Amino acid sequence: MAIQIARLRGLTEIGPDEILLGCLQALSRFGIAQFGLWTFDLDTLGIDWLNAPNKTNSPKASYSDAAVAIFDRAGQIARLDGCSDIHIEHLLVAFANEETGLMGDLRRRFAIDSAAWRSAAANLAGVRFVNQDESKIAELSVSPASREYLTPEEAAEALGIHVQTLRAYVRSGKLPALRLAGERSLRIRRADLDKVLEPLVPDKQ
After folding, report:
1. Amino acid 151: pLDDT
2. pLDDT value of residue 130
3. How distant, in Å, are the alpha carbons of 81, 159, 190 from that of 21?
4. Angle made by CA atoms 156, 182, 106, in degrees to the nearest 5
5. Which pLDDT band holds residue 143 (cuts at 50, 70, 90)?
6. Are 119 and 103 in contact (CB under 8 A)?
7. Cα separation, 14 vs 138, whole angstroms
8. Where in the chain are the domains?
């Protein structure tokens, strides 16, 4: 959905606003999304829900760093929820404390507080959307296996080691890492994971 919205807007980069709009569109019927105490009209949010984007003439869109941060937060929430995959409720909870962009506007316009928003998302768990194709909802999540840059937790899981061991590799310089601009969050390139592995030399008898 977020990709479709970006195409409708002629964007080449998908940001948090498009992810949130994609979630609301996945919940909607006839352009109306009912979520917890709130009713959102997609028309007033700038979504032409009647028209699908022309995929052949649309620019290819990628995820912005801010969008990846939302997915990372949703992934953490999913793990706390005992899920290996990110579901729509996890993405929505990831927006609960956002003060900027579309979520900030909705919070002010509808007097949304974090607890009520998370409660509404909790009530979505297990809900089936009869008018939505599974692939449309699945499009909202990005599997760590498909991303070039991983969080320390994801990189540690890929190597089968504790995250503190991985952080020690980063501190010692054994494993290159990058920091998100203006933040403390680390990212590790998947291609760099091999740098902490070395061939096993058998003991000579």
Report:
1. 87
2. 38
3. 23, 35, 30
4. 95
5. low
6. no
7. 16
8. 2-142, 146-196
